[in-house]
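Two records follow; treat each independently.
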Amino acid sequence: MKPAPGQSLLHYRLIEQIGQGGMGVGQTIIFEAQEASTGFDLWQLDASGHKAPESYLASSFNESQARLSPDGHWLAYVSDESGRSEVYVQSFPVPGSKIQVSNGGASQPVWRRDGNRLLFLAPDNALMSCDVSGGAALRVEPPVKLFRFPRPTSAFDLTPDGKRFLVAMSKGDSEGRTIGVILDW
């Protein structure tokens, strides 16, 4: 997939920038793009600008919400290939054997910074967690429920130490326009 003359890749949704501290030579950007024949697919782009975007995963199913493991060897993403959205993990930068992580519907995979745990949201707004061991072959333990968020959650992430969550959820009223920020927590 190469943009037409005058078209920018900024029209595609940026998913993940690999690496810390800005964009340097050799870093990769993971993004999703929608194609008429395949729906949402995952693509990778060398941030140096020396290569054209390359397809990472394009199938007849929708793939989205990609998150790269901290070591850069595994990509967690959501696919609807089972008939509902589930979390899968594959090797990166070349897709290999696939592991289905969730089994009751899921979204928003997030890696803990040490790469030993993968979290995601279940359809009932429960935060699920799987222990993960990397290496040549990824091993994923069955998911366990940590707790349920009290209201619909649109996004979450872990603090770098893995001890707290930052969560974006609806206010719970019909307006839902206010954003509350808690400082010094």
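The next record belongs to a different protein.
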Amino acid sequence: MESNPLLNKVLHYVSIRPRSRKEISTYIKEKLYKKSTPEETENSIVSIMEKLEDLKLVDDEGFARSFIEWRLSGSSPKGFRIIRNELFVKGIERDLLEDLFEEEEYKEMEISAAEKMILKKSRSYKDPRELKNYLISRGFSAFAIEEALEK
């Protein structure tokens, strides 16, 4: 089996953290910029993506799921609106995003993240409207904010 330096770089790139198809494609384009023709670049992308798929290293749904969980569970969580925009920029399709955000598990996680932010910020914001505005600015849905405030 012949060694492919570009494939090795891409394998290292995806080993750092999960990546979307668009992120991997962009990475390959950057590595081949000014080194090959557009046709050669596209052929390299297709070839490497096929190899990554065979190795089960490219999975946009799995990537989106782990990204959502990471953004909702961190020390400074974000709400669905911001997460949806970040994933869209990373090349995840809108239909997939809508399906994921409809899952009850993620709705509960968003409410839990909103509760966490309320506990963390309730001393800073004495006026409930200011606290709601802060949560909205963090991307939380009105539903999640209301549910979290009720608890």
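Discussion point: Residues 31 and 73 are 33 Å apart (CA to CA). How would you locate this feature using only the token line?
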